[in-house]
């Protein structure tokens, strides 16, 4: 089976969405050891608009830019220390365009992100899981649910407009389901 390569449009959208992530991800509200960030909003939006494979590549490009030192992580920091630090587990992130399934998938993905990030935070900070949940998960649940819903509705509208304008194809992009 021949593997499908990315089109020039897809490559451009991956770069564009990596740039949007680099711009919005550093904006954060510090509420404790883990800030409220727009990173996952952009990730959800990106995956909805350009698909899982291209969205993942876009996110990996963003992470790579941050690891090499560009200040693109929350709080305008960069470098490998951010990934190795207590919040690094949350940088390693997150579908099907049926909106209900998308929302369910992102909630499950966010729960996995919470689990990995919380475990890493507790390990690096030498604290209890209960404390890590209190400072790293509970304050973010409502905000993350709002971001999931907003990204789904905004992503659907933007994807529809891009397909209608002929800038994206309506091919199966995520989980074999067309938009």
Summarize the structure in words.
The chain is 63% helix and 2% strand. α1 (8-24) crosses α3 (52-67) and α2 runs antiparallel to α3. The protein has 179 residues and is mostly helical. It has a two-stranded antiparallel ribbon. The chain has helices spanning 8-24, 39-50, 52-67, 80-84, 88-91, 99-125, 129-136, 141-164, and strands at residues 28-29, 36-37. Mean pLDDT is 85; it is low at 172-179. The longest helix has 27 residues, at 99-125. The protein is globular and about 50 Å long. β1 (28-29) and β2 (36-37) form a beta hairpin. The chain contains eight helices and two strands.
Summed up:
With 179 residues, the chain is mainly α. The chain has helices at 8-24, 39-50, 52-67, 80-84, 88-91, 99-125, 129-136, 141-164; strands spanning 28-29, 36-37.
């Amino acid at each position: 089976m021949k593997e499908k390569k990315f089109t020039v449009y897809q490559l451009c959208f991956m770069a564009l969405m990596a740039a949007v992530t680099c711009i919005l991800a550093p904006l954060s509200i510090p509420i404790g050891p883990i800030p409220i960030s727009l990173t996952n909003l952009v990730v959800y939006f990106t995956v909805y608009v350009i698909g899982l494979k291209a969205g993942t590549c876009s996110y990996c490009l963003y992470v790579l830019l941050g690891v090499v030192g560009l200040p693109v992580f929350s709080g305008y920091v960069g470098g490998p220390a951010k990934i190795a630090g207590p919040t690094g587990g949350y940088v390693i992130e997150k579908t099907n365009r049926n909106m209900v399934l998308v929302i369910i998938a992102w909630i499950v993905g966010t729960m996995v992100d919470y689990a990995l990030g919380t475990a890493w935070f507790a390990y690096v900070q030498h604290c209890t899981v209960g404390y890590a949940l209190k400072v790293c998960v509970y304050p973010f649940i409502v905000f993350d649910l709002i971001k999931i819903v907003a990204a789904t509705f905004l992503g659907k509208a933007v994807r529809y407009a891009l397909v209608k304008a002929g800038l994206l194809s309506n091919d199966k992009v995520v989980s074999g389901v067309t938009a």
